[in-house]
Design goal:
Elements lengths: L3 E6 L2 H22 L5 H17 L2 E6 L3 E6 L2 E6 L3 E10 L6 E5 L4 E5 L2 E8 L3 E5 L3 H15 L1
Parallel strand pairs: 7-9
Antiparallel strand pairs: 1-2, 2-3, 3-4, 5-8, 6-7, 8-9
InterPro entries: DUF3093 (IPR021443)
Keywords: Membrane, Transmembrane, Transmembrane helix
Pfam families: DUF3093
């Protein structure tokens, strides 16, 4: 069985708020970018690149034969199927929950979120909440591979 990748890009209200913030920041920096000298232009470009990276953020769930790996922005956790106690469709997240790797309410809960629907993976020690475009398919895939391992 081959690995399957489920991805979710920054979306919904989170994307709109981030886009508005990026445009506002760049508009505020534009006057310094057109001034003589390179410092204003360099700052404008650096901030523009930072916003481009943030707006292209995505969360991923890699369902492999032996484990599932969840991640966002280059940070990830690998969870062997033997450690997974439950997997289910989680709640939708938005602006209030933020984006990126988040410490969520509850004992040792970690979110890899970019807004929108999620998958909740529960282990003996940690609850993971990961954004996914199609959480039902990701849950079914993980459950199927867990069942094949037991």
């Amino acid at each position: 069985m081959e690995a399957t990748l489920y991805r979710q890009s920054l979306n919904g209200p989170v994307r709109w708020v981030a886009t508005a913030a990026a445009l506002g920041t760049l508009a505020a920096l534009l006057p310094s970018a057109v001034q003589p000298g390179w410092v204003g232009t360099a700052v404008f470009l650096a901030v523009g690149l930072l916003w481009a990276a943030l707006l292209s953020m995505h969360a991923s769930i890699l369902v492999a034969p032996e484990e599932v790996t969840v991640g966002v922005m280059g940070m990830s956790d690998t969870i062997p199927y033997a450690h997974v106690e439950a997997v289910e469709v989680g709640p939708s997240t938005g602006v209030r929950e933020g984006v990126g790797v988040r410490f969520l309410k509850g004992a040792n809960s970690t979110g890899y979120v970019v807004g929108g629907p999620t998958v909740r993976i529960t282990t003996r020690t940690t609850d993971y909440l990961v954004s996914a475009r199609n959480p039902e398919a990701a849950v079914a895939d993980i459950r199927g591979r867990m069942g094949a391992r037991r």
